[in-house]
Amino acid sequence: MRPLAVLVAAGAVTPVGLRSIDTAFSHRAAAAAMREAPLLDAKGEPVTMCFLPTLDPLATGASRAALLGARALGEALEKLGPAARGLRMQMALCLDEHLGQRQPGGEVPAQRLAAELAARAEAHAPGISVKVATRGPAGPGFLLPELCDALARGAIDAALLGGVHTDYDPARIAALDAAGRIFRPDNLDALIPGECAAFVVLMRPDVARRAQLRDQGQIVGLATAHERARPDNDESAFQASGLTAALRTALAPLSDRGLRAGWMLTDLTFETFRHFELQAASVRTQQLFCDPQQVESPAQRIGHLGAAAMPLHLSIASEAFTRGFAPHPCAVSLAGSDGGERAAMVVVAPG
Questions:
Q1: pLDDT at residue 126, rounded to an integer
Q2: What molecular function terms (GO) are annotated for this protein (predicted)?
Q3: pLDDT band at 84 (very low <50, low <70, confident <90, very high)
């Protein structure tokens, strides 16, 4: 099966790990990161959140996101070593929807954040180009086809796919609280605010071999779709037509060869409509899965993943494949944005 791209390096920072391997092993051990945050809800009560206690507690919003992104980006580029300077590289940065909105002062946080991370990447890979998407968790699924096409045509040697997310911001907490989406004992149908960042480096197999970089996983399937059910409406999540179609399309390269997936990584929090959607889609695509059918939702232990969800899934999968603790050699990454966008991606262990 010909991969769309291979993973050769990953970097991640989460509330349970400052590097990708730390996060992967902590995730495997079911580590949880909930704690009382120095941020208050509308009632003046501290918010339960998953956040990095090693960061400046006064850093919030886009400034804090830049600190998270710099750590994960630095790790991924560091793993490339000297090879990075000789590569034609493009960075695809995925951010949450609200960062793309113009602020009262006229600034668009996503633009400033992208400029800061691009400057850091430039030091490792001169001439790197940057593309930004503020489409939330499903954003990587909409950017990857363009990246994989550029790799296939030889227009670039490497693609740097990353996502950065933080809810550690008074304005963000206020917006989530107003929408009734913050998890507390009397509001279980909600999410636990969180923060994380992850970057992965993708290449064509032959380019990776020439650069003497190890194949840590292969992306073999990808699909996107839209759902009508969103956090702000009452559409039935059990329709799940978009997610069902995305799963069938993404898993087609496996099923065409008589293979099935046994591991699923999702961005699900505790919001029930997304669980109903996955239940419906899973029943309709059951023939594409096999035992152990392990479903993992890191956001339920380390907080909302936002736009970093799919890059983090790839980081966890690459570490698990490389170090031998993946529950199955074929994994599916699922993510959904508040606007109804859905993305499904299939990554398999190196052949």
A1: 86
A2: acyltransferase activity
A3: confident
